[in-house]
Each structure stands twice: as structure tokens, then as C-alpha cells.
Amino acid sequence: MNNEIEQNALITEVIDHMAAIQQRFQAEGEDEEKKWMMMHTSDSDVIDFLKVATVQMLHVIDAIGELEPVNGITISKQYNIPRGSVSKITRRLADIYMIQFEPVPDNKKEVLFRLTPLGKKVFILHQQLHQHIHHNMSQFLHQYKIEDIRFLVSLMKDVMSTSWVQIEEKAIQINEPARILSSKVEISSESAEKNDIVAMLQQLDAKKLNRAKQLIQLAFFED
Fold it and tell me: What's an example of a GO molecular-function annotation for this chain (predicted)?
């Protein structure tokens, strides 16, 4: 019984930390990255672009820089950006001289995209940001024991391979058939996210939950 109480308490604490992490990334992620890029360039044209750039614009520049010459269909498939969004973003990037269109011989309907010299400056700067983030993440994770990192890798794989909607549907069918038939339950987005995480964490024992709690607390709640 004591183990079950501790497990439930740890699950609740981990869920609360996960919600706080999501809010932090949503609030700080894009702005922090753009600030870093502006601090690491003296090119006024690049800075002016970064002031108005969106995350998807930077992703499209990355895609073109990695694959050029490349068409919109390839960008959409490899970077999971809707084709309509790719079309709108590339037109806007062309208007501000970040990319250029290249016609395809014998195919008037298709165009390829290449970076302009200004677009290449932004691409290189964004790659430097990725390298900076990768270095910092690597340094951070090196403070943990190898068994902690193995556990974190295993946990992430489980998360990526789990369908939370399917788990929720099965739980409802097995445990609450009468309630479903008799009432409609409205759940806020925050509560739904917590329920998803609960389903995952309930599969872990108290020792692994304690590790997850320590990792999250050290990563995001200690200076």
C-alpha cells in the first residue's frame, strides 16, 4: 500500500513538472532562439529578418539549405509542413529575397527553391544555433549516470510509440461504460494532458518514477 501511495504521489509530481516544462518551452523557446541568433550576427539585414521571422519560416530556410535545389513537395514530406503552408512561406521568403525560384526544364508547373546569399547567412546562423543547443544538451546530460540516461532513452521511446487516445478509449470501455452512456465529460486541455501522462507513468515502478522526478526537477526547477 505504501508503494502505491508513493507511486501516485510521484506520478502527480512528475505530471505537474511536465506541464510546467511545456509552458516554459511555449513561452520562451522561439524568443530565446531568435535573441541568440540576433546576438551572434552583426548583419543588419539578417537582424531585420529575424525580427519578423516565424519558426516555420526558419524551418523552410533550413530545408532549402539542406536539400537545395528542392521543390515544395519534398519540403512538405520531409519536414512535415503542410503543402499550402510551404507555398505561402516560400512566396513570402522570395518577396524578401531570402530564396529564389528556379524553373524546371520541360515542366512549367514545377519550380525549385534555392537560398539567396542573404538566405544562406540566415541558414548558417540557424545551424550554429542548433550546434550550440546540441552542445549544451550534451553537457547537461553528461552529469547523469549512464543508467539514468538509459532510463530516459527508454522512457522517450515508450512515449513516442504510445497512442494516448487508444489507451484512453480502452480505459473508458473497460472501466467506465456506464458513465459514458449516462453523461458527457468535458475535460480542459490541461487536464487531458495530465491524464495522458498519468497513463504512461503508471507503467513505471517507484524507483523509475523517482528518477524521472529527479531528472525533471534538476533540469527545469534548479538554477
Answer: DNA-binding transcription factor activity
Contact (Cβ atoms closer than 8 angstroms) between residue 96 and residue 49: yes
Q: Which domain holds residue 189?
A: 2-22+144-220
Q: Say whether the peptide bond before residue 69 is cis (omega within 30 degrees of 0).
A: yes
Residues 153 and 114 in one domain: no
Tens-digit pLDDT profile for residues 167-177: 655 555 555 55
Residue 136 and residue 74: Cα distance in Å, rounded? 31
pLDDT, tens only, 63-87: 999 999 999 999 999 888 999 999 9
Contact of 83 with 73, CB cutoff 8 Å: yes
Q: Residue 28 is inside which H or E element, if any?
A: helix 2-39
Q: Please give the grid coordinates belonging to residue 110.
A: 514545377
> Cβ–Cβ contacts within 10 Å for residue 43, how many?
14
Residue 59 lies in a domain: yes
User: 3-class DSSP state for residue 172?
Assistant: helix
Distance CA(41)–CA(2), nearest Å, equals 56
> Residue 133: phi, psi to the nearest 5?
-65, -45
Tell me the three cell numbers of residue 158.
515508450
Count other Cβ atoms within 10 Å, centred on residue 98: 28
Of the CA atoms within 13 Å of residue 151, those in its CB half-sphere come to 18
Whole-prediction pTM: 0.67
What total number of domains does the chain contain? 2
CATH of the domain at 52: 1.10.10.10
Domain identity same for 12 and 86: no
